[in-house]
Amino acid sequence: MNHRFLGIVGLATAMAFTSGCRVNKSTGAAPATGPVADKQTTAAVAAVPVWAPKNHAFNPSKTRVHDLLHTKLRISFDWEKQHLLGIAELTLKPYFYPQNKLVLDAKGFDIHRVSLMNGFDAKELQYTYDGMKLTIDLGKTFTRNDKFVVEIDYTAKPNELALGGSDAITQDKGLYFINPKGKDPDKPRQIWTQGETEANSAWFPTIDSPNERMTQELYLTVDPKFTTLSNGTFVYSRKNADGTKTDYWKMDMPHAPYLTMMAIGEFAVVKDKWRNLEVNYYVEPAYEKTAKKIFGHTPEMMEFFSQKLGVDYPWSKYAQVVVRDFVSGAMENTSASTFMEDVQLNERELLDKNWDGIIAHELFHQWFGDYVTTESWANLPLNEAFANYSEYLWAEHKFGADEAAYLHLDELEQYLDEAETKREPLIRYRYADREDMFDSHSYAKGGRVLHMLRKYVGDEAFFASLNRYLTLHKLSDVEVAELRMAFEDVTGEDLMWFFDQWFLSAGHPELKVSHTYQNGGLSLQVWQQQDTLYAPVYRLPVKVVTWENGKKTEHAIEITKAKQNFLLPVSAQPQLVLFDSEQQLLGTVDHAKTKEELIFQFSNAKQFKAKLNALEQLLDEMSSPDIQKLMQVALQDDFWFIRNVALEALGQLKGKEAMAFEAKVKQMAQNDKKSDVRAGAILVLSGWETEQEKYKALYEQAMRDSSYKVAAAGILAYAGTGAKDVTQRLSAFEKEKNEEIVLALASYYAVQGGPTKYDWFMKQTKNAKGGALYYMLQSLGAYLAVNHEANTPEAIAMLADLAQNHSQYYVRLAAFQALMVLSEQAEILELLKEIKQNEKDKRLLELYNQLSI
């Protein structure tokens, strides 16, 4: 599962939206206080950090009473009612002890009949059903040597279930009908499923646990115009007398029930292959011609990962399907991954972005998560940390070390941001809700921890250990100890220390480093400053590099104490001491350096993060001539992100200092090979306090750029010139559907559009999707705040509908924020109270409850 579906931040979001509702994403959980002694003071209680691990109840893996061997589903649909009509035939046996009852997960069904099957003979069974669990009296006692088959005739009604979800998976009703009645001409009719964590039991009865495995058959009866997709192999399609067809999909290798999937819609199927296996891409017909450019690296990824792991891609085919209104970024269903619609790009959009990261993520899950599956949600990083790390591996292989390091720095920042309010062990059996496991610990921290493990044992041992882990535990469920033992078997080293501090303990090292040179030696002092009441004193093998007279020397040290001093041999006063020279450590490092040392670091360190850290620390001294000289070098760096950071720094300059860079910035705006940099250069020029008239031709050129991102920057820059023809120029883009362009226009129109842009805002808001809709609603809220005549019943009704009914919780939040702009009106205040009262999502309720409405 990939949870990065809020990453669409267009250039248009440069204009901030504010309203009466300010939401801080980190204000969800109440501070933990822990056990409090009778005489403990209020001050002492308050001293407990907000991020301290919470003492939740223990969540073990599910006890296996029965073993689910096979599931056969015969399924048809009532599109009008949004119901699934199913007959499930389950083959089971007692796991160990004799059993005369069977308990199945079955959420929100109408149960019509339950039978014990003997060939074609059916014996009706007695059962009780509470809407969540189906308890069946088997009529006799079975032993672990006995297989039995139960058949359940049922109707699934997912829309009648109470909503739940997580940051990664915004809803958990399992089965989704998209535009079921065909009333929306701009949206296809689709049906798709999303099973993680335990939502597949909302559309078929099962033992909905990750430590269960089954083979399966699906018979899907649909209108012949629809294409179907499921796990495993497509066997046949049969025409029925009533004009429908039945597609038969068969999965011969066992997998966990939550990985079962189906997708139904009018898809274009673009065929590819890896070795002799089918690799197919299911997209909307409008994207048929670009499907191979979107997903085309998939066969190369399959070969790369198969070679790296020494375990070939294990399933009978690999398909990737894009659906509308998906409730996550993507999902790694066995042999058939599902993706959000944002993945679909046209030729021009492909110039600015690719989705290789999310494609690699779901593909790697086919080994880590599907082939070998976590036994419990407490062990979720055994799925997600590996999928996260695959993005690094692929970027390193395909795009180079800098792109991989850039990605990993983003992961570190995601985790450290979350760590401000939450610190838990990676493997954690104590959680309030299993959905809480889908966080930046399991993903971002987990991937970084695997990278440290790779750096410690070395590449050969790392991949040999992964091979052993996958080979020993294929088609089974695991816990973290089995990963540790695989590494120990390969390396011969007891690695409990590593797994204990990184997988089983909360927090991260917070280091303060200093160095002094005297008497021909370098004294390096390291303090571990993290709160050891909640985090360990870490054992940290790291490398330190020194430069003396231009000569680079590497030193290996191992930190084992809270305060430790190392004496390193050097021949002269070092020009630079670079701690953790591989930049692999998960944690924070405070190592003060002089301006001269930072300049040397930028010029001589090869690691992306080391160069970036030096550059960022020098930004406060932009008025210094030697820093401006360094910026000239940075603007020519081989890596685009370094060039972009240097450009952003130039935004601080004014007058003559800025003009010294003018020619270079203009050249970058026109010719840089990276669209992000061209766009950044345009925005730098537009931000300088100089006569903007002279840049008009450049901005006009930018608006014609092949890149949407650059064109959007050109729109914002041209709008800032105040030219008389701004309205005319911008109106030429109003039919564009690309989100970068739409959001750029929305930013300008929010404050300058006036009443005539009402229809445009309404149309664009109705057509926007996902992350773009989130930001569009922010601009709409700002527009309504300054255009009171736009506060029409139509606009309010649209916002109310989005705030109450949209499938994505963050869109409901943005619509709620937009309505808050109008909360001085009594009827709007009442509407907000109604929305708050009817909201079921706990994340939104925690935010809404902080508001005085």
TrEMBL record:
Keywords: Aminopeptidase, Hydrolase, Metal-binding, Metalloprotease, Protease, Zinc. Residues 297-502 form the Peptidase M1 membrane alanine aminopeptidase domain. Its cofactor is Zn(2+). The keyword Hydrolase applies. It holds the Pfam family Peptidase_M1. InterPro entries: Aminopeptidase_N-like_N (IPR045357), Aminopeptidase_N-like_N_sf (IPR042097), ARM-like (IPR011989), ARM-type_fold (IPR016024), Peptidase_M1 (IPR001930), Peptidase_M1_aminopeptidases (IPR050344), Peptidase_M1_dom (IPR014782), Peptidase_M4/M1_CTD_sf (IPR027268). It comes from the Bacteria. Its EC number is 3.4.11.2. CDD domains: M1_APN_like. It catalyses: Release of an N-terminal amino acid, Xaa-|-Yaa- from a peptide, amide or arylamide. Xaa is preferably Ala, but may be most amino acids including Pro (slow action). When a terminal hydrophobic residue is followed by a prolyl residue, the two may be released as an intact Xaa-Pro dipeptide. Residues 70-259 form the Aminopeptidase N-like N-terminal domain. Belongs to the peptidase M1 family. This is Aminopeptidase N. It comes from Pontibacter aquaedesilientis. The lineage of its organism: Bacteria, Pseudomonadati, Bacteroidota, Cytophagia, Cytophagales.
